[in-house]
Structure formats: C-alpha cells, structure tokens
Amino acid sequence: MNIAIIGLGNIGGSFALAIKENIPDANTYAIDIDAEVLERAKEQHIIKDGSRDFKDIIPNADLIIFAVYPKLLVQLVKDYAPYLKEGCIITDVTGVKTSLIGDVEPLLPEHADFVFGHPMAGRENRGLEFSSREVFIDANYLITPTPRNKEENIEFLKNFVKTLEFGSISVISPDFHDEVIGFTSQLAHVIAISLINSDDDARNTKKYTGDSYRDLTRITNINEKLWPELFMMNKDHLVKHIDNFQIQLDKLNAAIQSDDVETMEEMMLESTKRYKDLHDIED
C-alpha cells in the first residue's frame, strides 16, 4: 500500500511514525513545502520518500492523509483531483467537519472516496521534531461519514487507525462532531486563552503558580494560524458553548459576591459528580 501524508508536521509526522511501527510493509511518502523536513524524515527512515511536488506522489497513492490547515486542504484537493488514483481513499485530521465537507466533496472525482476523520491526539508544539507515535496509543478517533462514502472504505479507515493503536473509534455525524468538539476542545482553548491573557503582566505570576494554573494554561501554546480558522468554521456551535459557559461563570460570580455558600457548594458538588463520571471513578 502506498500512503501519502500531506503536511509532515506534528500530526503528519506522528502518522508516519505510527505507520512505520505498525504497518512496516507500507510505503509511506510525504508532501511538504519544507525540503529540509522531507530530507530529514527520509534520512531517519520515517518516510520512504518525499517531494514538494504532489505530482511525484499523488498519482500512485492508495491512501492520502491530509494533515494541513482546513482552508489549505480545500485548495489542495482542488489541485490534486485530476491526479487521484482510481479507488484511492482520502482522510484528514481536521477539527471541523460540516463546512469542510461542504467545500471538499463537490471537488472530488467519483473514483475517489474521502472518509473524514479526526484523531483526538497531538501536542502543543509544532514541527516534525515533536511528532510521536505514542500520542495515538489508546487515543480517541472520530470518523464522520457522509452518504457519499462506501461502507468498505469506512471499515478500512476503522481498521487502519485501530492498527495504529488508537483506542475508542466513534462513527458520528459531521454536525454532532462539530457540536461536541466545539465544547470539549474549542471552548477549552477559548477559556485557556482568556485566562492567561487576563493575567496582570506586572505581577510576575510565574513565580507563584501551582499545578492548577499550569494545567489550565497548558494549551495556550497555540497555533495562531490554525485555531482562528477552526473557530470561524464552527462559530455557531462555539458561540453557543461560550454563552452557556458565561451563564455558569455569572452564576458563580453572583454567588461569591452575595456570600451564597449554598449555591457554591451545589455547583462544586455537581462539578465533582461530572468529573467522576468523565473519568469513570466510582464513589
């Protein structure tokens, strides 16, 4: 099987490493704008070969994994479409699905099947040097099929990511994906960004932090080019989640200001209950 990874950064590199470890017979190729990254990956035997010119790789690819920003992905699909191999399967790692699917599917030839996916794994740092196959081990993977997809290709992607040692694999609708990711991922980033940016620069906070602040701000080492795209492409769901969060924040704020201990205790008991459910902790 010839596999083409488009974008050999953190996630693309992690796929390459996971494929090398778990599917050693596969021929893994990469396309990236950085020739030095491609050469380094080849020297380290992470990929078989790489190129900056997609025409060197795409026509022979059985599986294509897009690990690039969503807007770029759309443009690349438009460029690649005339060169796609008969029966090739395409997938992605993008954190927003509904609008992306609407942009991509009209560009596809009938003989290519794009099964949209989302690995719930990764690291804050960018670049091939931060890639790791271990981040995929037991991680969740989301697949968002469309009516255009062939059932056997959905099954192929399930088996493929299972072979790469992902844990729970969920097949969900694109809209539900965007709704739940808007809450679990995008809202979490909105809160973390707002928290760290509300700090008083003159305080020199880093001298006084503990685990709580470090844990809550870990994800603020953020890709400032990617995340605005994700926020804007999912704004309807995300703004709704921000509004619901604001309701809870206002409720807690009011309870603190009015010395309403009962409300604070109720909110904390509810959060503890939800935490235990999230982590499958028995009372």
TrEMBL record:
Record-listed E.C. numbers: 1.3.1.12
Alphabetized PROSITE patterns for the sequence: PDH_ADH (PS51176)
Domain Prephenate/arogenate dehydrogenase: 1-283
Keywords: Oxidoreductase
Enzyme class: oxidoreductase
Gene3D superfamilies cross-referenced by the UniProt entry: 6-phosphogluconate dehydrogenase C-terminal like domain, NAD(P)-binding Rossmann-like Domain
Biological processes, Gene Ontology terms: tyrosine biosynthetic process
Top-rank taxon: Bacteria
Pathway(s) annotated for this protein in UniProt: Amino-acid biosynthesis
InterPro entries per UniProt: 6-PGluconate_DH-like_C_sf (IPR008927), NAD(P)-bd_dom_sf (IPR036291), PDH_C (IPR046825), PDH_N (IPR046826), Preph/Arog_dehydrog (IPR050812), Prephen_DH (IPR003099)
SUPFAM superfamilies: 6-phosphogluconate dehydrogenase C-terminal domain-like, NAD(P)-binding Rossmann-fold domains
The keyword Transmembrane helix is assigned to this record: no
One term of GO molecular function: prephenate dehydrogenase (NAD+) activity
Family listed: Belongs to the prephenate/arogenate dehydrogenase family.
UniProt protein name: Prephenate dehydrogenase
Organism name: Jeotgalicoccus coquinae
